[in-house]
Amino acid sequence: MAVWRALLPDTDDVVYRVEGGGSDAWEDELVARIRRAFRKGREDQIDDDEQVDEVLAAREQPVFVVLPPPVPDDALLRALRERYPRVTFIVHTGADLPAADLLPACVVPLAPGLDLDAEKTRHADFMSALEIR
């Protein structure tokens, strides 16, 4: 919700939430989930995973991918950035976020930090408002 609100009113930007992660093949798992999230609703326009990679690499408007916790290590973030240089990856914050000096070099923490309980409430309120509409 915080990312979505920060992007308003420019709603052409796209935010994807990627679930899961943390396996021994986390990079492959995340790439597969990013591809699946991006293809959803575009099945007649995008034929295969390579085409997803091409579209994301050439895309002019930003795409934001919310990665699952914990914060990925520097090597994984570097590999994801090499594969998708125009994508902004958003990692979880809160009590589990390491100190700024322990974060990978390409991770920039939000300041001020988010109140995750307040964000959960805002999300629930937003979803309720959508149902009423």
Secondary-structure element series:
HEHHEHEH
Strand content: 5-15%
Given as residue ranges, the uncertain stretches (5+ residues, pLDDT < 50) are none
Strand order, main sheet: write it out. 1-2-3
Count structural domains. Answer: 1
From the N-terminal CA to the C-terminal CA, the straight-line distance is 18 Å
Fraction of residues in helix: 40-55%
Oligomeric state of the chains in view: single chain
Task: Describe the main β-sheet briefly.
Answer: 3 strands, parallel
Principal-axis shape: globular
Number of helices: 5
Q: What is the residue-averaged pLDDT?
A: 75
Q: From the helix content, strand content and strand pairing, which structural class follows?
A: mainly alpha
What is the β-strand count?
3
Rg from C-alpha positions?
16 Å
In words, what does this structure look like?
It is a single chain. With 133 residues, the protein is mostly helical. The protein has helices at 2-7, 26-39, 49-58, 74-83, 116-132, and strands spanning 14-17, 63-66, 87-90. Helix 4 (74-83) links the parallel strand 2 and strand 3 (87-90). It is globular and about 40 Å long. The mean pLDDT is 75.
List the helices and strands and how they pair.
Blueprint: H1 2-7, E1 14-17, H2 26-39, H3 49-58, E2 63-66, H4 74-83, E3 87-90, H5 116-132
